Amino acid sequence: MEGTRSSTGRDDLLRRIRDFTRSVVEDLGEGRFPLITIDRFRNYCTSPDFNCSCISDKPKGQEILTLQRKSHVYRIDVLLRVLLIVQQLLQENRHGSKRDIYYMHPSVFSAQSVVDRAINDICILLGCSRHNLNVVPVGKGLVMGWLRFMEAGRKVDCIKSPNADHPIPVLVEEVKDIVSVGQYILIVEKESVFHRLANDQFCKENRCIVITGKGYPDIPTRRFLRLLVEKLHLPVYCLVDCDPYGFDILTTYRFGSMQMAYDTKFLRVPEIHWLGMFPSDSEKYDIPQQCLRRLTAEDKRRTEAMLCRCYLSREVPNWRLELEKMLQRGVKFEIEALSGHSLSYLSNVYITSKIQGRAYM
Ligand SMILES: [Zn+2]
């Protein structure tokens, strides 16, 4: 089942918060320094050894926070403040965004990232997912195509106009009754490509569902995608630019991100096929020389670091080979480079020929 790491009902979480704060207060009352143990997770390592333990979703170590260490004092302060806000949200059964929480004590929370880390720590401490805390991100994903569902009692009917975009629901746990007559799900990295397809009436011509997370996908986009895959059992393809960012976004959809590694098993979508753009597509699809750009030093550094991720060699060695090719050739290009042929070449030729010819990996 999606969403539940252990028992994560509201009452359960409130009880766990009370137990946790009580033990901290008791320690302080009896003159002891409380020790806060936080499990550490990762979704990949860079060990060349095939037997690394990343494949299991178990913690890969622990961190112990104590008031005896100066650097931990601030972190504990933030953690307890955010915990108090979360407790309030749960008690009143309201939702708040990470940004709302930041603005409750902006002088203490020096940056949004400080709040984000505390939220992740709290999820690990309580053994739950972020949405269980009633903390919702501001959604940015879009969906269109042959899909209909209920969202919090409201009907969202994309089929009526399959080339119109709809925001991806933020409260994914309230999405029910998903119906589709689509044949596949297509994820596109960029919003511009999503709108290109909409303009070309792509979903009218092709029975499919198209999703974009507008760059690195947020949690609702990934959870919604995962829900669609679980309920509809449709093949999923992902189309990204041929550059290190595109590849990293592709791996975020399929394997999850390091930041959310504690929750990866509810966010990753292992069914994803990489549809393109592959480095070899520049020749296969005759991308003009002037559309190929040199990899920068930073691109090369990122690519080399990605090549070491253990999940690539273990689960998708052919993806890794393509990434290696990108580095060897030293060039990158965007999906839009196909527009050199014609504006709708992407919709009419590239995507359909790749899917029909099974030219994905
Ligand atoms: Zn590993």
Q: Can you characterise this structure?
A:
α1 packs antiparallel against α2. With 361 residues, this protein is of the alpha/beta class. The protein is globular and about 75 Å long. It has helices spanning 10-29, 70-92, 98-102, 112-126, 191-199, 202-205, 219-232, 244-255, 281-284, 297-307, 310-315, 317-329, 345-356, and strands spanning 35-39, 62-66, 96-97, 135-136, 142-145, 147-151, 154-157, 166-167, 175-180, 184-188, 208-212, 236-239, 272-276, 293-294, 331-332. It folds into two domains: 10-136, Winged helix-like DNA-binding domain superfamily/Winged helix DNA-binding domain (Arc Repressor Mutant, subunit A); 142-356, 3-Layer(aba) Sandwich (Dna Topoisomerase Vi A Subunit, Chain: A, domain 2). Strands 8-5-11-10-12-13 form a six-stranded mixed beta sheet, with helices on both faces. The structure holds zinc ion. Zinc ion (ZN) binds next to loops. Zinc ion is lined by residues 44-45, 47, 52, 54, 310.
Question: Secondary structure elements and their pairing?
Answer:
Elements: H1 10-29, E1 35-39, E2 62-66, H2 70-92, E3 96-97, H3 98-102, H4 112-126, E4 135-136, E5 142-145, E6 147-151, E7 154-157, E8 166-167, E9 175-180, E10 184-188, H5 191-199, H6 202-205, E11 208-212, H7 219-232, E12 236-239, H8 244-255, E13 272-276, H9 281-284, E14 293-294, H10 297-307, H11 310-315, H12 317-329, E15 331-332, H13 345-356
Parallel strand pairs: 3-4, 10-11, 10-12, 12-13
Antiparallel strand pairs: 1-2, 5-8, 5-11, 6-7, 6-9, 14-15
